[in-house]
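Please check this:
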Amino acid sequence: MAAFVRFVFTIMIVGMAVNLAIVLLANARSQRRQDREYTRQKEALGRLAGEISGHGRRADAVVEAQNVNSLNHAVETTLLVRQYRSTGTSQSRPLPVVRIVIPGDQLQAGGLMLEFGRMFALDAEEYAPLRDTQWVFFGMFCGASEEAPAAPGVADERFTFLRRDEVPELVRLDPEVPQASYFERKLWAYLWGLMPEMPRNAKYPWVPADPGRGLKATWLKPATITVRPAHTYTAYVSLAGIITLEEDVPGKSGLLDEMVKEGAKLEP
């Protein structure tokens, strides 16, 4: 009887050891996969930084509809806005069109510039590819009279392209994948943590008094333009930190028809 008990006990111990070995082996393989993916994401960050650093950004806007009062003054304007993953003046690699509604006819475009110094992220070497690079973003498109977010920290889907604690669509490492990776979420949590909210009474351009850990974030002075039906507009953010918003030559490159066609696919 004692021998049988010892046999059963031995079988149990061996089974536990085998199960533990299988779990440890699976964990080791999973960790190796995670390490390889993390390395791949870091390399992708380096390529992205090299691609967009030192280049401005472009966005296009078209007037989809406009409501006017009895005096023919615009009461409300609906616009379609699109950014591009490509840099400079290129219109390749377009992002999806978004629809915004503003009061009146005064469109305003704001933005953000990030300058990564040599001392950036000394406590996070995985973000070293960003050192000595400069990125510019559009932060908002809204009505000039609106209480628009003064900084990317306020989530408002009407017109905010930069939402705090989220990975900007413009700089996704793999735009074909619906969800941002762990590496991307961790990176942008780190970046947002270095950028304080802009006070409501601050004047543009606004830079925090104490730039955090080698990152200088500048909220840029917005540009404003009067928009009209059947017209298209181009916005630029330059490396000098200047936002421009200009009316295009009528019929320019079929942009109006193209974006209105894309806008028809959006939900009302």
In short: The chain has three helices and eight strands. The chain has one domain: 48-263. Residues 16 and 243 are 65 Å apart (CA to CA). Confidence is low (pLDDT under 50) at residues 150-154.
